Structure formats: C-alpha cells, structure tokens
Amino acid sequence: MPLPKRRHSNARTRKRRSHHALSMPGLAECSNCHEQKLPHRVCSACGYYGDREIVKRKEA
Fold first, then answer.
1. For the CA atoms of the chain, what is the radius of gyration?
2. pLDDT level of residue 60 (50, 70, 90 thresholds)
3. CA neighbours within 13 Å on the CB side: how many for 13?
C-alpha cells in the first residue's frame, strides 16, 4: 500500500477540507399546521402528510 513521502502542510489540508462544511437542510411548510418540516416527511407537530392524517397525535 503506498504511503506519502512527505506530510501535507496545514494550508493544503485546510484547502481540501474547505468544502466539508454542513449546510442547513431545505425546509417546507406543513399545509395543515404551517410548521417547518423536512420535505416529503410526515409533520412531527400534527402528524399529517399532505391532507391525510398518518400519525394519531394525543392531545395534552
């Protein structure tokens, strides 16, 4: 297995890692309760997906 002959400098390593930053996921608005949720997923606040109730939520 080949090994590097010299170590990489900090600048070279950091330039390579400059694209590794995390980004915020795109959020969509729930059509039922208008909370922010991930697209194509059941709303965690009300349990609806589109106009159908998928998860029964208990009233507190």
1. 22
2. low
3. 5
User: Residue 32 in contact with residue 46, Cβ under 8 Å?
Assistant: yes
**What are the backbone angles phi and psi of residue 13, rounded to the nearest 5°?**
-65, -45
Contact predicate 50/28, CB 8 Å: no
In angstroms, the CA 57 to CA 50 distance is: 16
pLDDT band at 59 (very low <50, low <70, confident <90, very high): low
Q: At which residue do the structure tokens 């109730």 appear?
A: 53
40: tokens are 């194509």
Whole-prediction pTM: 0.61
